[in-house]
Amino acid sequence: MESLTGFFGRDGYINMWSRSICYRTWVSGAFPVAFMLKDKTLLDPGLARRLCSGSLLQFVTREEFFDNEIPSLGFYGQKEYMVQNYSCSGSPFLMFLPFICLALPDDSPFWTATENEGFWEELGSETREIVLENPGLVLANHGKTGTSEIIPGKVYYDDPNYSKLTYNTHFPWEDHNPAGGTSMEYSFRSLDPRDVRGDDVNFYLTGIAIGNSSDKNSVYTTSQNMNFNGVKNGIIYRQAIMRKPPNNGVGYIIDLADIIIPGGVIRVDRSRLAFEYELTLGHFGLPHIKGEKPVINQFEDAEKKIITAAIHGRQVALITYHGWDELNSMTHTNRNAEADESTVIYAHKKRLEKNPAMELMISVMLHKTDDSAWTEEELSPVKHIEILDVTPAASALGAKITLANNKLYEVYFEEMDGNRRC
């Protein structure tokens, strides 16, 4: 109950995460149920009703949401490519769980309390974080943008419903694009000429390549599972395992370090990719509403490269400081929840050394929910970066990150593998 409201945006928007595509608002059904319990709920009834109503309005106010006058198979509209393999014609009706509130008596606090914005009123432009250690989830509520994010840490397979780096209430996820530039994921392609198959368990142990197909290496893949390594000194540590075999992903690991800031995240990630490879890191996808493409701007200075993209009411910015070759954008088809075409801005790198060195990939991913121009201050969240070959904790390759507000973060990947939680 203490963390439930953290899953919702300020206006009650739910996150397109887990089984929430066709089910939509089923999660907000927990709000009226909380006022049916024998013990007094920890929920603020005024905030509970506001979020419950807001989650419904997120969908029923959209004309495209209905298909043949009933909720569609999709998220915001009828999108066959968004349907999950366990969905059926009855799945959309689970979204009406919040109407359990009609079973509450007239004098229930759920009905009598004055609606309010709860903790959002106190956030201002700051961000609140909630760490849920057991499920390996971190919730981020951005007062600056009114959005809420789910940052997952325990993912067992490559499923975009669970495996993305971050899920945002106002920037619904996109499906994986085998051509690269997948939104909010690291996308990996092997360039190792000895690696003839993407899921070859025994090749590096036996050298046997009989019956393998090299075609699998022509496409990008996303992480096959993700580990949660805990939160230490305000830094979220996870690991993206780009391939499980051999030896539980050794040679195919990206160590992740997230520093949450207002309206975004600073990424200080360490690649442990032992063979020739190509990598992309995508931002949230922006839909082409009514066919209109985002406005994209790109520029750089001596310290960083920046690319921004904007549609009406939403904007994203990707800033790279270290470890990336270039920034670019890509139009995707049949990937986005809101439109059949979308644009993703992304970072790209290619390493052709036979045994590439470990490398830090330092970037900033920002989002806005208005049409205001990006300011120099917003696009300069990092004041100083000191990269350490060996950290004071005796771990390899870390960094000291000083923010514009002079706050210091020390990113040391000590005992990463030992702290794995699956």
Describe the model.
- Strands 9-10-11-12-20-17-16-15 form an eight-stranded antiparallel beta sheet, with no helix packed on it. Strands 7, 8, 13, 14, 18 and 19 form a six-stranded antiparallel beta sheet that branches.
- 8% of the residues lie in helices and 35% in strands.
- The model has no long low-confidence stretch (mean pLDDT 92).
- The protein is globular.
- With 422 residues, it is mostly beta strands.
- The chain folds into two domains: 4-123, no CATH class; 129-419, Beta-galactosidase, Chain A, domain 5 (Distorted Sandwich).
**Count of distinct structural domains:** 2
CATH fold-level name of the largest domain: Beta-galactosidase, Chain A, domain 5
Report the average pLDDT across residues. Answer: 92
CATH architecture tag of the largest domain: Distorted Sandwich
CATH class of the largest domain: Mainly Beta
Sheet having the most strands: 8 strands, antiparallel
Order of SSEs? HHEEHHEEEEEHEEEEEEEEEEEEEEEE
What is the helical fraction, as a range of percent? Answer: under 10%
Strand order of the largest sheet: 9-10-11-12-20-17-16-15
